[in-house]
Prior knowledge:
22% of the residues lie in helices and 29% in strands. The chain is α/β, with parallel strands linked by helices. The protein has a domain at 30-104. A hairpin with a 2-residue loop joins strand 1 and strand 2.
Amino acid sequence: MKKTTGKMAVLLACICSLLWATAALASSAVGEDGTFNGIRLAGKVRVVEYNPDIKVQVVTSFPDLKVKVVDHFPSEIGEWQFVEYGEDFTIQFVTSFPDIRIKYVTSFPGLP
């Protein structure tokens, strides 16, 4: 009986850790309203080398946000217009430890 109880405890612990890991991976840094730390992820964006508002990693799968680059009127979540001044927020492109992960798209920007 003790062997069965011990095996059940180990199995239960494994299942709980898998559920916790899945929940952690499924959570996105971008809120349901399309914001990150109070920054609405739409508008004019300036790329900087230091002290960004958001550190961004470009990925091809499992993004936090799908981004469409536009030339004018970036009003919807995920529509970004890259500018040299007059930005709404700044980003820095990184290859590790990003705040958010983005994927460039040509249509249907926003939350995945």
